[in-house]
């Protein structure tokens, strides 16, 4: 109830105000609110206000911040997409001259390695071999049946491979009297080896052959009593003296 002018205020209103006055607290102290109680309220208000503004902007299509690339590759792709038509090249770490020098270095290294490997294979391969593997010596060098046998006979099954006894060049290859078919090979020291009675010849005159290379298939042609190779050695040339092939082979580390 409002108090009329000139009338005293109700005693209950006076009692609610007077205790503050009796407590001795000043008017300014009653009005001031402690900072510790106001600041959390202000901070909460600001956070709520900011969230509302952000929500409103999001609803109205405010542009969102673009996500950063997750890798160097994506960053590079983004760069290329933004500079369409512009050639982008990696930063060079060596010059063309340095790259060419490196190529030459590798080529030289490979050539040297290939040369070393070839030399190793050459050193490892045999220089002289028995003309027929697993053959049986059926007739030696010397007198036989009232004549002189100038070679050795190595018996083996028909069409067994026959090998060049050493490195050389084929002098002759083809039909020959008494032998049916024959091959003559000239070796580096001038000696000539002769192979006779083969079933077929696999080389041609002028061809270079290595020791152990197949030159023919064993046969029974000409004056022969069974499949075998007749092998001769002409010392110093085609017309040189015919020497014992067993001795010639033994001097070169090959046992018959």
Automatic annotation (TrEMBL):
The chain crosses the membrane at residues 41-62. Keywords: Membrane, Transmembrane, Transmembrane helix. Pfam families: Peptidase_M23 (PF01551). GO terms for molecular function: metalloendopeptidase activity. Residues 148-238 form the M23ase beta-sheet core domain. This is Peptidase M23-like protein. It comes from Blastococcus colisei.
